[in-house]
Amino acid sequence: MFHLISNLLHKGTFSHGIHPDENKHFTENIPIRRLPFAPELVLPLSQHFGAPSDLIVHPGQEVVRGEPIAKAKGFMSVPLHAPATGRIKRVELMPTAKGPKTPSIILEVYPGDSQEVGYYYERDIDEMSQQEIIQAVQDTGLVGLGGAAFPTHVKLSPPKEHTVHTVLINGCECEPFLTTDHRVMLERTEDLITGTKILMKALGAEKAIIGTEKNKMNAVEAIQKHLPEDGSIEVRAVQTKYPQGAEKMLVKALMGLEIPSGGFPSAVGCGVFNVASTAELGELLPKSQGVIERVVTITGPGIEKRGNYMVPIGTPIRFILDQLGFSGSANCLIMGGPMMGSSVSSLDVPITKGSGGLLVLTESILEGQHDQKSYPCISCAQCLDACPMHLNPSQLGKLANKHRYDEMQSDFHLMDCFECGCCSYVCPSGIPLVQYFRVAKSSLREKAARERANAS
Ligand code: SF4
Ligand code: SF4
């Protein structure tokens, strides 16, 4: 058996990167469990990259589980489906993990209902054309469940000049603490293979590779048992290293190809999809169902019942914490993992389609962090050695301090930074480099938007 597995270990990786403590042992061996329905679900109309969904229900209206409640507003948008049978209570501004309040549907869940999905029909994927599949994918409301929340159907429509020959399924899950994708690969393997075949058909790709890291070899074994005999789908384990799960890093590790600066994977003939999104697609598309729930890793020293939970979209964090045992405050919460996640401002923030993890810290850990000071750069170059994009974070940090954002962009490729946080992690002076870069990028984006508005 070991010989079989060792053959599946792929040597490839990318240069630089870091090895933070994984902390996955808290949840990686716990099977997915279901959380009950909260009395009220909070459903932001904007929980994906692109235009917010358009409301198609009104307060007082009854809806059944799975019914569309908002439609896509154009191509760069997706619809929203009712995660539970109940009544639309109101539409109001509610906080989200991203920060600003956003228009959200408040759905009152009927407590005595069986909560069977009441809105679906079966269909034969083999009978569908590529274009029909792409439209059907948009109709599911599926977005990247790994955190980016980029609409999946848009990824299935690459520029005409690009030919996608290989679908890469990203099961690396390199963020410390998170084990959602790991459990999905173990427990939803058949859906994963079905979803992979659908993606291949939609893109006209001949080959697919499911990529994971060496710390998840039981997932490799599980997938291996379900692979089609024609060899069109492979599974490979690459080195365990952060941020191996970043799109550019995975393409480099599995294919040896470099995605050009500012470009998409399709520029090098690849389409990259998260493993949980792919399994979801494999389950939903044959039944014409929408995304109404997702697996979330709920973990960290501040939560009693850690694990991976199937959570209805829209479940407020407050409800989850009440169910699983927690006594801290909203300051202790990070939506996502410790490297790329964002701190949560309110316990009213709901789980959305892009929420793969909820990391719960304690007040004492936070106090320790607040005591940490930052010191001047000592030019040790550790940040340069860590940056997977081969940028110069030290120089970028110095320019950010002087608000020389234009220079950061033109001379030091700021926009190639994907905010992985490796530079901040290794910096012995404790300089919050990645925070500086987020501020600088946001300032540059606002400036560009102002210039566009002035020109029109
Ligand atoms: S946050 Fe940006 S600059 Fe820092 S290591 Fe990651 S990609 Fe490089
Ligand atoms: S790691 Fe920190 S101290 Fe070292 S060069 Fe980079 S910014 Fe300066």
Automatic annotation (TrEMBL):
Cofactor(s) listed in the protein's UniProt record: [4Fe-4S] cluster
Signal peptide: none
EC primary class: translocase
Coiled-coil segments: none
Cofactor note: Binds 2 [4Fe-4S] clusters per subunit.
Domain of life assignment: Bacteria
GO cellular component labels: plasma membrane
Keywords, in A-Z order: 4Fe-4S, Cell membrane, Electron transport, Iron, Iron-sulfur, Membrane, Metal-binding, Repeat, Translocase, Transport
GO BP: electron transport chain
E.C. numbers: 7.-.-.-
Main subcellular location: membrane
Domain 4Fe-4S ferredoxin-type: 408-437
Residues that, per the record, bind [4Fe-4S] cluster 1: C377, C380, C383, C427
InterPro entries found in the cross-reference section: 4Fe4S_Fe-S-bd, 4Fe4S_Fe_S_CS, Helical_ferredxn, Ion_transpt_RnfC/RsxC, Nuo51_FMN-bd, Nuo51_FMN-bd_sf, RnfC_N
Function statement: Part of a membrane-bound complex that couples electron transfer with translocation of ions across the membrane.
Subunit field text: The complex is composed of six subunits: RnfA, RnfB, RnfC, RnfD, RnfE and RnfG.
Family assignment from sequence similarity: Belongs to the 4Fe4S bacterial-type ferredoxin family. RnfC subfamily.
This protein's name: Ion-translocating oxidoreductase complex subunit C
